[in-house]
Amino acid sequence: MIWTPGQRAEIGQHAATKGNTCALLYLKEKYPELTKQTVSDFAKAYRELNGKSESEILGIKKKRIGRPTLLPEDLMKKILTLLKRYIYKRCSSVFCCD
């Protein structure tokens, strides 16, 4: 599931104040996909932002998942953009995406 910043903040706040297990049991009905690790990650992010403004707390970002790239981030974005254009152009010319 892709969590919105508001959901991350809500889960993190509940876990930081009441504890991870309590937050998991309380919010499991509202968010059935919620796991203990997710609650723990959001609580940690919330605690790091403790004392910040509400807009910063709502901006809890998700962690990058996967292996780090060997190329710089800007070069990686350019390569991915070129690949997407190439695949789209090739795919639309052969009508394989219909």
Quick recap of the structure?
This protein has helices at 5-18, 20-27, 36-48, 54-58, 73-94. With 98 residues, the protein is an all-alpha fold.
Quantity of strands, as a count: 0
Report helical residue fraction. 55-70%
Major sheet summary line: none
Query: Which class best fits the helix and strand makeup?
Result: mainly alpha
**Molecular shape:** elongated
How far is the first residue's CA from the last residue's CA?
27 Å
Count of individual helical segments? 5
Task: Assess the beta-strand content as a share of residues.
Answer: under 5%
Structurally, how many domains make up the residues? 2
Q: Which spans of ≥5 residues are poorly predicted at pLDDT below 50? A: 94-98
Mean pLDDT: 78
Q: Rg from C-alpha positions?
A: 19 Å
Secondary-structure element string? HHHHH
